[in-house]
Design brief:
Blueprint lengths: L2 H10 L1 H20 L34 H36 L4 H14 L3 H12 L3 H25 L5 H8 L4 H37 L11 H8 L8 H28 L1 H7 L1
Helix pairs in contact: 2-3, 2-10, 3-4, 3-6, 3-8, 3-10, 4-6, 5-6, 6-8, 8-9, 8-10, 9-10
């Protein structure tokens, strides 16, 4: 598909356009919060606590009088940063492991890599975070490590499966006959042909990373106060849900819409980048 054709198909994809629009809103909020927020998120104004949405505070205030809109903007910055780095760790380590396992299919190294992936899969990211926190204490860094570790086998399995289907292709056999080693073939011929799959999976894992960060912060294992986090905002609101429901609604909607946007974008990219789906669509 040419660049013009790809762009035209992308513009016609409702899922992709809606997903990108939702994602762009929260990405813009995160970027703007780096230099400006309507109110200082660290300033406590007890006299203004639990105010309902108004012209002054569009999303109301929390139990400390902090502006919820400002906190959601800064929270977007936190969630995106944690998820982005965690997915980067998973992809940066998982893809080389998957390529290596595929290149050495059936060997002891392949078996060790895949059984190691099974071992990591046996422990959910929340449990890994609890183990890490028990040793090093709760922090954003430990949340990134926990989510990143859980992402490694996801990308390793995907990469291995996709690479194995390519190792029997004629152009790979030609490369082997020409004297290229397994590592060079993996980098020059295998990786470029599975990049589309990795991009789509990265989008999906990014949304799951935001959910995981919110969950860890909700139970007190993620980002620590006074740094705002959507998950911690939900945790703070649970005892006041009947008195101030807006404290839970707005951060909850922020999580839902961000994850929805990323999932829609991932579905749209998958439809565009997977030639089998394009054929069926025709």
């Amino acid at each position: 598909m040419s660049e013009a054709g790809f762009l035209s198909a992308a513009l016609r994809s409702r899922n992709l356009m809606l997903g990108l629009a939702l994602t762009a809103i929260f990405a813009a909020a995160a970027l703007i919060s780096l230099i400006w927020t309507p109110f200082d998120v660290t300033e406590l104004k007890i006299a203004e606590k639990l105010q309902t949405p108004s012209a002054t505070h569009l999303f109301g205030t929390d139990h400390f009088g902090r502006d919820i809109l400002s906190m959601i903007m800064v929270g977007a910055q936190t969630s995106i940063a944690v998820a982005f780095v965690a997915v980067g760790i998973g992809m940066g380590l998982g893809v080389p492991l998957g390529l290596t396992a595929a290149a050495r299919r059936g060997s002891l190294l392949d078996e060790v890599i895949m059984r190691g992936n099974d071992l990591v899969f046996a422990f959910p990211s929340l449990l890994i975070a609890i183990l890490i926190t028990a040793v090093f204490g709760p922090s954003a860094f430990n949340a990134i490590v926990a989510i990143g570790i859980f992402n490694i086998p996801v990308f390793a399995r995907l990469t291995r499966g996709a690479a194995l289907s390519l190792w029997t292709r004629d152009y790979i056999l030609s490369a082997r006959v020409s004297g290229k080693g397994a590592a060079r073939i993996s980098v020059e011929h295998i990786l470029p042909n599975i990049t589309n799959l990795l991009i789509v999976q990265g989008t999906i894992q990014f949304s799951l990373g935001i959910l995981a960060e919110a969950a860890l912060s909700y139970v007190g294992l993620g980002v620590q106060p006074p740094t705002p986090s959507w998950g911690r905002m939900l945790a703070d609101s649970q005892t006041l849900i009947s008195l101030a429901p807006h404290m839970a609604l707005f951060p909850g909607f922020a999580i839902i819409l961000t994850v929805l946007g990323l999932n829609l974008a991932g579905d749209g990219l998958r439809d565009l980048l997977d030639p089998r789906i394009r054929r069926v669509g025709r």
